[in-house]
Amino acid sequence: MFDKKTRREDPELGGAGMADIAFLLLIFFLLVTTIDIDTGIGLQLPPAPEEEQDPPPIKERNLLNILVNAQGMVLMDDEPTDISEVKQKIKDFVTNNGEDPNLSESPDKAIVSIKTARQTPYRTYINMLDEVMGAYAELRNQAAQAEYGRNYGQLEEDSEQQQTIKDMFPKKISIAEPDEG
Known about the structure:
InterPro entries: ExbD. It is found in: Cell membrane. By secondary structure, the protein is α/β, with parallel strands linked by helices. It has a domain at 61-175. Helix content is 34%, strand content 12%. It has four helices and five strands. Strands 3-2-1-4-5 form a five-stranded mixed sheet, with helices on one face. A hairpin with a 2-residue loop joins β2 and β3. α2 crosses α3 and α3 packs across α4 (160-168). The longest helix is centred in the C-terminal third of the chain and has 27 residues, at 122-148. The mean pLDDT is 84.
């Protein structure tokens, strides 16, 4: 009597709870996952001109032409320039104040024009654009130090002091359409 073993049935897992757990895990991962979004280059564009409006006249001496060709070479006014020299040349151009007849008349009139070819290496273009922005940042920091004893970034956002420095060194950067070739 006691020798006989009774067979027990194997226990089963309920499948209904598994669907609930999978759904909750899905919701959890959707909530906590961050998605990297490319934001691009933040530039403030000027307002679009009216259709029949002529562009304002620009003296050639107030325009610094920068070309980044398909091989990644930087040409400033048709002269090959190393990318490490771009920042200093822009600072000299903008702060000339009419002394050198080949450079701008004043910081307010200085315009930096950037043009590329379609095959320009992206990294070279970004590095060159960083140098241009860095030149203006250094000029604004120097002016803010001289005027207020603080860097430009330490001035209160949208304050009268910050606007004064922006007026002293306005960023006039023209980014032209790339060449096809």
